[in-house]
Amino acid sequence: MTFIAAISCATAACAATDVRSNATKLSDVAPYPAAQKGQVRNVIWLPEKADEDLFKVELVPGKVMQTDCNTRSLMATLTAEDLSGWGYTYYELTDVKGPIATMMACPEGTEKEAFVAAQGDNYTVRYNSKLPIVVYTPADIELRYRIWSGSEKLQSAQQQ
């Protein structure tokens, strides 16, 4: 797979630049539940592509925090949920723990603010421009994403 682009769109200010935010509201698509107390509902509208089966969307939840030369990450669980009666999928990010960091002695001056991503299983979802990707996260978590593409040409495995 090849990395195409990284886009961050977790705030209301970013929604104004979204390709479909003016044309479609989430409530026009389906009755997705409102975010619970302490949660934020993130919505990703994807542009239409010719062969969407060649693309995937990697969800990258995390937060900006003070870092240094150590490697840092968060741990979290992303669960796919069914929108009852509609057959649509939405996602919930729960059990956010961390940060987890290596314990190297860092030279002075390596401190900086940086985005620290959560690690976990199933953070890659199907590319589908016909439906939004809806992800509920804790309020202190920002959701970023990247779009990946695969080759149209399939290669044969070698039998041994």
UniProtKB/TrEMBL annotation:
<dbReference type="InterPro" id="IPR027438">
    <property type="entry name" value="Ecotin_C"/>
</dbReference>
<keyword id="KW-0646">Protease inhibitor</keyword>
<dbReference type="GO" id="GO:0004867">
    <property type="term" value="F:serine-type endopeptidase inhibitor activity"/>
</dbReference>
<keyword id="KW-0722">Serine protease inhibitor</keyword>
<comment type="similarity">
    <text>Belongs to the protease inhibitor I11 (ecotin) family.</text>
</comment>
<dbReference type="Pfam" id="PF03974">
    <property type="entry name" value="Ecotin"/>
</dbReference>
<dbReference type="InterPro" id="IPR005658">
    <property type="entry name" value="Prot_inh_ecotin"/>
</dbReference>
<protein>
    <submittedName>
        <fullName>Serine protease inhibitor ecotin</fullName>
    </submittedName>
</protein>
<dbReference type="InterPro" id="IPR036198">
    <property type="entry name" value="Ecotin_sf"/>
</dbReference>
